[in-house]
Design goal:
Largest sheet: 2 strands, antiparallel
Structural class: mainly alpha
Number of strands: 2
Order of helices and strands: HHEEHHHHHHHHHHHH
Radius of gyration: 27 Å
Number of helices: 14
Distance between the termini: 63 Å
Oligomer: single chain
């Protein structure tokens, strides 16, 4: 009798659970979690776990030869007074915002142009997008040759009566040169992102505004920009993250010179870890870079917190 009552009680408890699980909406959600689980496992394995291990390593003194020795937050304190790190942080900020701010406007302008209908539009889109898919090593080698004292950039400047620039040997010119090269690579990339956002705007809204007498400037200000806020946020966040992590192009083109004028934080981390064998300090610098990127991202999301149009 006791077993029968227990079985009935268990059945009465499991039936509502089974009923909920097998409802259509719940079943769809369950399948969503099933399909998401491999990607979540990859993110945890190759992103979250390495980040935790890197933070643990940043609390140690480790030279790749002897076992790590725990030193607490001494590496972070040392970085706050390290002239090389502070200089690389300033160079990174200069390069990041010097690149990103023009990218935001130039890519939007190109997207507006290529959103119009004109002959050979698709071929020109492809031609403009090609720099974005060039491998980063090829991109760096191309611009290394362009920055040569007798390269095409200086030849072009001399043709219009301007003096040549010592792009890679002048501390004042090296970061503007990198910014110029990055515009060539990243403006087409984010142009495509803006194009996707523009093509999601219902054409009926612009047509209705035109009928009501709105000119192109008014349609752009009151229709296009508000409906592009989500895309603008995406472009701003992704571009800052990408430029903050710059490494390969700087290593190949200038190696951080002259006199550290182009040493971004990514290159500082590489040099500290594999040239000076201070792995703890290098991972501490990478943690500070991660924290800085997270702060900038959160700030941007706060500014665009009402990103969905009414």
């Amino acid at each position: 009798m006791t077993q029968l009552l227990s079985r009935r009680r268990t059945t009465s408890l499991t039936r509502p659970v089974a009923r909920v699980v097998w409802r259509p909406v719940a079943r769809h959600q369950l399948w969503a979690y099933v399909f998401l689980s491999p990607m979540v496992a990859l993110l945890v394995t190759f992103k979250l776990v390495p980040m935790i291990q890197a933070f643990r390593l940043s609390l140690t003194s480790y030279d790749l030869l002897t076992p790590p020795r725990f030193v607490g937050f001494a590496n972070y304190v040392a970085l706050m007074s390290d002239a090389r790190f502070l200089k690389s942080a300033g160079v990174t900020l200069y390069y990041t915002f010097g690149t990103c701010i023009p990218v935001w406007f130039l890519s939007l302008g190109l997207a507006l142009v290529f959103n119009q209908v004109f002959p050979a539009r698709n071929y020109l889109r492809l031609a403009y997008f090609l720099p974005a898919i060039v491998p980063v090593i090829v991109f760096a080698m191309i611009w290394r040759f362009l920055f040569h004292p007798y390269g095409l950039l200086n030849v072009a400047l001399e043709q219009v009566g301007l003096p040549g620039v010592d792009w890679l040997t002048s501390s004042a010119a090296v970061i503007p040169g990198f910014i110029l090269a990055s515009e060539w690579r990243f403006v087409p990339y984010f142009m495509v992102v803006y194009l996707a956002g523009l093509q999601n705007i219902p054409q009926e809204l612009n047509e209705a505004a035109s009928i009501d007498g709105a000119d192109a400037r008014q349609r752009f200000r009151y229709i296009t920009l508000p409906l592009l806020r989500s895309t603008i946020l995406l472009v701003m966040v992704v571009s800052i993250i990408m430029q903050s992590k710059a490494f390969t192009n700087v290593l190949v083109i200038s190696g951080g010179g002259p006199n550290g004028a182009s040493t971004v934080i990514g290159l500082f981390i590489y040099q500290t870890a594999f040239q000076f064998f201070q792995m703890g300090v290098a991972t501490a610098a990478s943690m500070l870079l991660l924290a800085g990127i997270m702060i900038l991202t959160i700030l941007q999301m706060w500014v665009f917190r009402d990103t969905q149009p009414e």
